[in-house]
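Service request form, structural biology core

Requester: graduate student, group of Dr. S.
Request type: structure prediction, single chain
Budget code: on file
Notes: please return the result as structure tokens.

Sequence provided:
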Amino acid sequence: MRWLLKQKMFPFRAYTVEYGHGNEGAHDILASEGGKALIGEVFNVVPSFFPIKKAAVLKKLRASKVQANYKVILVNHDAVPASYVPKPRDGEYFLFVNIETGECRVFGGKRTGSPGEPAGS
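Core staff response, request fulfilled:
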């Protein structure tokens, strides 16, 4: 989360974060400001379980009742090989975070409009 705030990748000054298996919220990360919204999921997973977890999280984000411009997945960097390149849809972002160094590899769509609008609107 510190990386997101420092890099100002998304147009939010604050994020609500709720980690844990028993979280009560719809998503692990929520943010909204200036008519834009972000939802996100965070997980730490071994490489062999990454495809299953990724599929479940994408399904959850895509089916969410929360209308979001940005759908974000934060995951440990060592869940995938350094050569892995995901294929996010418009408005989806994958952030592979190295918690030891604070570095982050980012892959993502370019949505700028409201949910449901084409990118660049």
